[in-house]
Amino acid sequence: MRLRIGFLLVSMVVSVFAVRLFQLQGVDAQAYVAKARAEGVVTVDLPATRGKITDRNGVAFATSVDGLMLVADPTVTVKHASEIATIIARRLDIDYFDVLARLRKPLTRFQYIARRVPATQARAVLAAIDRRGYKGIDLRRDPLRSYPADDVAANVVGFVNEAGKGGDGAELLFDKRLSGEDGTATYEVGGGNRIPLGDNSTVPARSGKDLRLTIDRDVQWYTQRVLRSAVQGSRGLSGSAVVMDTRTGELLAVADFPTYDPNEPSLSKKEDIGARALRDVYEPGSVEKVLTASSLIDAGKVTPSTRITVPSQLKVQDRVIGDWFDHDELHLTLTGVIARSSNIGTVLAASRLSSRRMYGYLRGFGLGARTGLGDPGESPGLLRGWRDWADIDHATAAFGQGLSVNAVQMAAAVNTIGNDGVYVAPSLVKGRATTSGGATVGSDATTTHRVVSRRAARLTAQMMEAVTNPLTGTAAAAGVPGYRVAGKTGTAQRVGPRCGCYNGTFTASFAGFAPADQPRFSVYVVVQDPKNGGGGGSIGGPVFGRVMSYLLEKYAVPPTGAVAPTPRIYWGRGGRLPQ
Amino acid sequence: MSTLIHQARRVPRIAEAAVERARLTVVPRARSRRAARVPFMALVSLLLVGGVAGLLFFNTSMQQASFTATSLEDRAERLEAREQGLQMELERLRNPQRVAVQAKAMGMVPGAAPAFVRLSDGAVLGQPRPATVDDGLRVTPLPTPKPRELDPKPMVIKPAAGSRAGRQGVDGAASPAVTARTGTHETQSHQQGSLR
User: Fold this and answer.
1) ipTM, 2 decimals?
2) Is A201 a catalytic residue?
3) Smallest CA–CA distance from B67 into chain A, residue
């Protein structure tokens, strides 16, 4: 009997065990496994190091510095939350109450306190917390983006936003390439050290690839400063300057003013962020006359010495076209038309070319199409189809009104003349790189096509030399002593943003290349809405001259030694020079 | 036993070989050579102790290595941070803006006209000319314009012709205005006034 009672008791106990076993293994198994894992197991993100952006010589525009993030385990920090928050808020200049809330957050063991803190600063904060004996704050790697050159090339390089993603420029365009892939590490921890034979697994982070631009930092800096000087000096609204290697199409500088500091993008006005040279479109004005002239020569309609009788004004449809200077009837050669920048002369010469062919040439020069830099923010400009052209459109297109361009587009177009009539697409990336959108861009992937014959380009370049000639041209300030310089001024009527019509403001610009007989560099400068009464020659010319002379010096381009032919700008009895 | 052997010898010779083969003999009793217990026990216990100790030692050294690894990683991180700090310092010093501001403070200006000397025959290419103060370039931005209330139009008082005191007054008033319009640092302001 006693035995039976014993058996009964034992079986009861065993069945209780069995039920519990079933509950543990059968019902709640997953929950317990997870719980066991969480105990002492740490999973950390391993942030990938973002690739550098450098200039053409490897000088850094954007680097990733080993920043650290402060993270907290609120279950531990809740006890001394206010003390810890005081230390952090004071040393890192972040909001005290924000930190406090995070340090007290219930039901979690992980909270970000501060991100992208320079390593030395973060360590100092942690040391201060440790010294007072508070626990629960830890440091983790968190790459920090730094732009050591500040505003130099900021418009092209862009910046990284709060989330660590590209916010503009190359940082945005090549985000995929630069950012790499974050990894994770999971391991068991005891007393701050990894447990050697514990579970651990690591997916290593894949660092982003570097990106090399075609920009030369020194040229970029100099161009930006000269441009700023010119824009502020003329009380202009904004300005852009583009420096291009004539043969390769590599952009050595793309300067914009006003621009911003990528280290503190939020401090700048929204419209100052981004590349004005790509984004802003405007009517190019007289600079465009060189495209018209070279097209006319290529089509065999004119030569530089073609005689043009320029009346004091010209009526086209219901509009009257005038020149920037008052004159009686003038007898100008085509060279004279370019040198004196006569609208009427250009219109008369261009009337020999059909709208269809002129449109074809302009498209060949890259107008009305994106330059292929891959930037989604680039505006293609505006060039209406030739079928929509009335006579007045044909006439105004010949001297650069009624169509719009961005600065890089116009630089590439004028560069075509310097490059013996072959259009070379501009590039911003040295070598080749794939944009986040999947397009391959770069100096190795550039495309070229012939627009006008070598002869036409050479003759146009010679006519452009008359512009910088102090005796004949409109922009002596653009000359570089000892060098043959080809250039063209532009002072265009500007379309106001509000009314969508010419509002009396101007766009002053200057484009050119040097040495004129063996071009190495093309420079294009544009200043919007100058208020000192100056034009392309007096505002853009000096910028061009300074930047070009810096380029020739820096890249050790000696003068070719050839003597420029003396331009003939008048024929017959000529005309009276405007005073 | 010996008698048995003896009897067998008497068996006719006819099947001698077979008999010889079939003859039973007593297997000599195997000598029980017992292996010595002590060395074996010693070996086993040595292995056991060695194994346990080795495992313990291995574990300990692993732990030790883990501590060392953590501390070395820490150190590497600190050194890396320091290297980056120095790198940043270098970048700051190499910043073209900083270099330019310093060069300007030393009275330097950009080159006036590019020119080269050809080493083979000493010929001068280009048209060199000495740089002057007019070649200077403003490298710092203009100060933000003040609101009109804080920057009232200067009152111009026409001095009586020939009055010396009057002239001085105008000059004195004009120079701070020039500084405010173009100047950046006080040390440069007298130069900047004359630059574009």
Assistant:
1) 0.75
2) no
3) A193
